[in-house]
Amino acid sequence: MNPAPDAPTLDSPALAGPALGGPAAPPDALDATGVPDAPAGRAPSMLRTALVLGAFVAVGPLTIDMYLPALPTIATELETTEAAVQLTLTGTLVGLALGQLVIGPLSDALGRRTPLLAGTALHVVSSLLILLAPSIEVLGALRVLQGVGTAAGAVVALAVVRDLYDGRAAATMLSRLFLVMGAAPVLAPTIGGGVLAFTSWRGVFMVLALYGVALLVMGWFLLRETLPPSARRSSGPRATLSTYRGLMRDRVYVGLVLVGGLTMAGLFSYVAGSSFVYQGQFGLDEQEFGLLFGAGAFWLIAATQLNPVVLRRFSPAQVLLTGTLTGLVSGAVLLGLALTGTGGLVGVVAPLWAVLFSTGLALPNAPALALSRHGEAAGAAAAVLGAVQFGIGAIVSPLVGVLGNDAAAMGTVVLVALVLATLVLVTVVRPWQLPDPDGETVAVGH
């Protein structure tokens, strides 16, 4: 990688946008709903912004991961198959994908705050209804609804980042968000395993409902509007379709979306198959699974937090290319060791951790580069990013079960996803041709 110009520091006034929180806005800053816009001219605290947005984003990984230790138990209690239970995970991802396509344009038209709070309320209601689910079919349908509510946090947080930051600053903020997001997968299975020690799998969803209520309180008091009325767009179907058509005409944007989605597909295949691989193939119990799953997520977190440091010397395009290629090599090693049985559990865990580390380098930079191209429609642009990521995840998750729910099946899906991500990156995005989002042209060797 060739070094890029020095990145701005986190405290640079040049990165300042509207603040989240702080003193009340003057009367003339009220939007149409009577909610004050964020005051202009103040540099936001990146830490506070990351924590507030990260708390909302974290509801997605928590919703996906907290019940993973209970998947075998749910299959037994509801008298169904392991593959059917895995489809409830797919349902959540479908809801996340479809919900973002609707909520993203709404956030461009209504502002960020109202869709975020409404989606979070839907998540709370669906979580409570799951407590009464009598069958796998009802559970699956409610998980779709839960995913739609969860989508609000995922898409609105990205749009708010684009409202406030651009270029390296956006990639840095996304890295901070991934710290919070990374803590959720670390804690979720462990929390789920702890809940299962005292109650049934339904208790996991009561915890999710309570977390959603806490988010509603936080959002009401701490989250200010970052999209002023003057910057909002029409929310009609024709205007929404026109916005999406414009996004789809941007070859580089579409390529970056696909790279991000395929990279996430490798991560989702790990999420979908890990409980069966660790517990079924290697005999770990629910608590041991939670601890090992969390230990793996540490490497994802470590890479996302290394990313801002690397961005001081290299461009987002360079880091994206390096992370994707490293993940590809790690995925190949994972599949080779899994197919031959070399190393047992260690032979699976070690290359998986390398895949997670590489993913942590790539993931913040693909959306940062994509969103930098369409700041005028950040909600819709973030919606496409999220919908593709979770839509591909919904397709990928059952594949691990279909292929056998073992380490070889998981490694196969991981490797195929990363091979496709690399092909799209090299043939469609062509990162060596991308301008630096902060204004400099970047030369990446190829």
Automatic annotation (TrEMBL):
Pfam families: MFS_1
TM segment ranges: 50-71, 83-104, 116-136, 142-165, 177-198, 204-223, 252-277, 289-307, 378-401, 407-429
Keywords: Cell membrane, Membrane, Transmembrane, Transmembrane helix, Transport
Domain Major facilitator superfamily (MFS) profile: 47-434
SUPFAM superfamilies documented for this protein: MFS general substrate transporter
Biased composition (Low complexity): 13-32
Protein location: Cell membrane
Region (Disordered): 1-37
Family: Belongs to the major facilitator superfamily. TCR/Tet family.
Protein name listed in UniProt: Multidrug effflux MFS transporter
